[in-house]
Every structure is written in C-alpha cells, then in structure tokens.
Design a protein that fits this description.
Blueprint lengths: L27 H13 L12 H12 L7 H5 L3 E3 L6 E12 L5 E11 L3 E3 L1 H12 L2 E2 L1 H16 L3 E10 H4 L10 E8 H4 L1 H12 L1
Parallel strand pairs: 2-5
Antiparallel strand pairs: 1-4, 2-3, 3-6, 6-7
C-alpha cells in the first residue's frame, strides 16, 4: 500500500521548491529514513553539510517520481484538437531523466515521438509532458518506451505511433561494468509504423536529419 503524501505534481517544477527555511519540514517520515541511510553509510547527519540533506533528498526524490501523482488525462487536458491532417508528426530530441528501478540511479537521454494523425492532433508540448509522465517514475527503459507509445495511442487513436529512446545509464557507468560511453536504444512501434516498412523508413530518415 502506498503511503505517498507530498507531491510536486501540481506545481510541476522542482526548482520552485528548492529553497528551504531553517525550520521547514517537508515529509518527516521520509526525512527520517534518509537520516537512517546517512547513519548506515557511516556519516553524521548533524554535521553542517548534511543537516538539510534529508529534506533535500526527500524533495528531490518526490519530484523525480512525481509521475506517480499524475494521470494521462491530467497531462493531455484539453490539448487535443480536431484536424484533418494525416501527415506524419515527429517531435525529436525530447530530453528526459529517469531513475532505474534496479539501483535507483539515473538514466537520461532523448526521446523521439512520432504519430500519424487520424482526425486529431495534440499540442506539441503535451508530447514532452507525456514522456515526463512516465519518465518520472522508477523505470526500465524498455517499459518507459512502451508506456509512452501506448499513452499516445490512447490519447489520440491515430493511425500509428512510434517512440525511439536513446539513453545513458549510470548503473552501467558508475558501477558494474563501468562503461562510460555506452548507450541503450529502444523502440516501440504501433499501428502503421509496425505494419509498414516504408513508414518506418521515412521516420528514421526524419530523425537522422
């Protein structure tokens, strides 16, 4: 059962909540857990540099997992419009940041999202917000890619959707095999993009240029 309470979903921006007063308490239980982690690591939570760290960590992790506090309808809102356009729409190079669910270490990169409209288009900024909706959760890149594709299909019911993500994973860079220059590419194809090789080829050409 989830005990999640504080949220940044409404405000949307972590930076607006960075400043902390000397007596501020964000989430007492969460902050207590962070203090225990610091102690377990052999640190002193009372030393000057760490006194506000439990608060900052609680705020940061709450923001970085704020996708749990939102639904697709909240993100899309009223930004779907009737339009006769049926030509491919591609939103390239959407930067995203997420946390690997295996080690809670960051992975980050760029997403390319394309769709073939069928009577409806979506506000372009909402495509990036859909990516954030699922990136701001504990994730694996493969699932994240498919969730974005499925959400676009649900929101628009288009002829097809394609999502391609390329990311670097700190769990490979900082620990384990410690390979600094590796990247992971995942794709999810729906509808026409899956069924038609020519459509996929057109998409790849547009992404490369």
């Amino acid at each position: 059962m989830s005990t999640r309470k504080p949220t940044f979903a409404a405000s949307g921006h972590y930076a607006a909540n960075l400043d902390a007063g000397p007596d501020e308490v964000f989430d007492p239980e969460f902050e207590s857990l962070v203090r225990k982690i610091l102690l377990r690591l052999g640190e002193n939570p009372q030393r000057e540099g760490l006194q506000r760290t439990p608060l900052r960590v609680a705020k940061a992790l709450t923001f970085l997992t704020s996708g749990y506090d939102q639904k697709l309808d909240d993100v899309v809102s009223e930004a779907i419009f009737d339009e006769k356009c049926e030509e491919m729409v591609v939103v390239k190079d959407i930067e995203f940041y997420s946390l690997c669910e295996h080690h809670v270490l960051p992975f980050f990169g760029k997403a390319h999202v394309a769709y073939l409209p069928k009577g409806h288009v979506i506000g372009l900024s909402k495509v990036a917000r859909i990516v954030d909706l699922f990136a701001r959760r504990l994730q694996v890149q493969e699932r994240l890619t498919n969730q974005v594709a499925d959400a676009m299909m649900e929101a628009l019911a288009p002829h097809g959707v394609a999502v391609i993500m390329e990311a670097s994973h700190f769990c490979m860079m900082m620990r384990g095999v410690q390979k600094q220059n590796s990247s992971t590419v995942t794709s999810a194809m729906r509808g026409t993009f899956r069924e038609n090789a020519r459509t996929r080829g057109e998409l790849l050409e547009l992404i490369r240029n």
